[in-house]
Amino acid sequence: MAKRKDDSRKPASSAAVGAEVTIGKGGETHQTAGGDRPVLTTQQGIPVADDQNSLRAGVRGPTLLEDFHLREKIFHFDHERIPERVVHARGFGAHGYFENYKSLANVTQADLFQRAGEKTPLFVRFSTVAGSKGSPDLARDVRGFAVKFYTQQGNWDLVGNNIPVFFIQDAIKFPDLIHAAKPEPDRGFPQAQTAHDNFWDFISLSPESMHMIMWIMSDRTIPRSFRFMEGFGVHTFRLVNAEGKSTFVKFHWKPKQGLQSVVWNEAVKINGADPDFHRRDLWDAIGAGDFPEWELGLQLFDEAFAEKFEFDILDATKIIPEEQVPITPVGRMVLDRRVDNFFAETEQVAFCTQNIVPGIDFSNDPLLQGRNFSYLDTQIKRLGSPNFTHIPINAPKCPFAHFQQDGHMAMHNPKGRVNYEPNSWSGGGPRESPQGFQSYPEPVEGPKVRARSETFADHYSQARQFYISQAPIEQQHIGNALTFELSKVETPAIRERMVSHLLNIDAGLAEVVAKGLRLKAMPKPATAAKPTRQDLKPSTKLSIIKNGPKSFAGRKVGALVTDGVDAEILAALGQALKAEGVTLKLIAPEVGGVKDSAGTWHDADEKLEGGPSVLFDAVAILPSKEGAALLTTLPAARDFVADATAHRKFIAYAASASPLLEKAGVALDEGFIPLKTAADCAGFVSACGKIRFWDRDAAER
Ligand code: HDD
């Protein structure tokens, strides 16, 4: 059997390099197998002698149909792609585990929550929603946060997002929502954007979306990376214990790295500089052993709370504020392993909301009920066979036994005569068990109707609550985002209709957007099924800034250096950052690197044009005097400084950098930290813990 090499990109050692032979009249030389290099074969295992030339009748003659190697190779290539996901097409996955803190047997019999310290393997896939597989990572979009737990009682998929509410209340509207968000059908654009007429037309006619609109226009939809965002199961689920008692639950993932987003102008530029910014970040962090972690938290409540809560707990457009039902941390998720093969794992993984395990159950949320059909259905289309659970990434890691059989690509084919139940054969296969999954016996009755419950009718109160919970700078970003998106809408009536909804949320916000769009007159407020409640208190937990990270660990600093960079300062900066768990990257005029003031060579991580400041959380400008003179002539160097300033980053600088700072036209403030001596580096690193120098914003305004 052909042996697989661990890393095909490693240069082969001389022992591994095969003999060189000359093939064909062109005189090209190629390597044949030798040493530990495996022999190239066809899919049927037939060794291949020539992979460079097809079989021809004469060197300049036609190619022969007889060339089975050519035909097999091209046939397989033609079929390499599978349909991308109809939504969440662009995603990135990683392996890890869930570690349970203590037994939750009092509320659930789910096996993974029974024993303190027990680890359950899992796979996570993060994604954007609207864009196709090749779209940029920093699109303004909801992020998918899907977790597959391989428990001892089967796979549990918690298929959530980084936002705790959804656009719609009933799954029947999902195709409309997605059609409206995706590229418009006549022109096939815009890609990965909601800034177009169809999306805002649909939204402005769907008051139930207003709470979600506040979230997606906030910085939550432009996260710094997957590592710095929360995750939510969104719906209310049930936990059921061994006595059959049910407790309602909402699932939350809290990043140990802290919450962090980029600003919109930065997002736009990151998309150009590194469209893979988010996936690269996760790949790099895991590769460096800086394993990202989230805590799983539960909001637990009973029927009595559900009865008295202001909103319907079955309505996925509502949250339960943490101030009303606190979140109990029950375990942690650690992502500690990269995928080996993107297609086999990230692309083929199939999440299904219907995958739940004994001890967890659905609620009657109409969005969740519809999802339970959609996910199984879509996997048949995407993966081509009901046997998609035979693909390793989707297969349970616990024993399983059933009588489902055959179908395309069946890989697990039980031996023996029995494929039905009941049967009377000895050893006649698996049987049902009282320990198996039992649905919670919730009593239900009522007429068959197509109707929305009255308890789902308040569309503005929590939208307002979200808005008033934000820090002023975050409110400003929401206003800017709405103005930007609606300015891309060509139809004035749609812009006005949206502003009429904003009037029901916050008059100040409506004013800002109306002014930003230069509406000729303020429209009337939209007709509301229920008036907006003014009594809901701000919830601090809804703001990113108010819950900012406690440290700068896990971030990246970009230092712009030239020949003659101060050796002591560079070394001290590197050490101070390392001590804080921060990565230092060197950006130089040439990728080959620079020689510091002590004559030591440093390889650069990026050439200046390939390493703009948007790729870093903070920057240091450390040219020598001569280097600064050179940098003033380079537009990319001026942008490096100007962008870092505009994006409210902390900026360390050497005295010799002054001509460049001047040329970039930036005004120094307390976010600029001079590095006069090596001792100043620690102060810079500690200032960076605030992530952004927001005071600059206020000063500019
Ligand atoms: Fe969905 C994928 C999350 C509503 C139908 N959804 C998908 C993924 C995530 C979510 C994270 C990507 C999974 C992966 O990485 O493979 N979806 C949500 C959340 C929702 C939601 C949090 C609301 C609370 N989705 C929703 C509805 C429907 C769907 C209402 C249909 C009625 N979603 C799908 C789908 C997808 C999907 C078509 C596309 C690819 C896939 O399932 O495997 O079935």
Automatic annotation (TrEMBL):
Binding of heme, residues: 85, 125, 174, 371, 375, 382
Claim: Transcription regulation is one of the keywords in the record: no
The organism's superkingdom is given as Bacteria
Catalyses which reaction(s)? 2 H2O2 = O2 + 2 H2O
Q: Does the keyword Oxidoreductase apply?
A: yes
Example GO BP: hydrogen peroxide catabolic process
Q: What does this protein do?
A: Decomposes hydrogen peroxide into water and oxygen; serves to protect cells from the toxic effects of hydrogen peroxide.
Q: What is this protein called?
A: Catalase
The organism of origin for this protein: Singulisphaera sp. Ch08
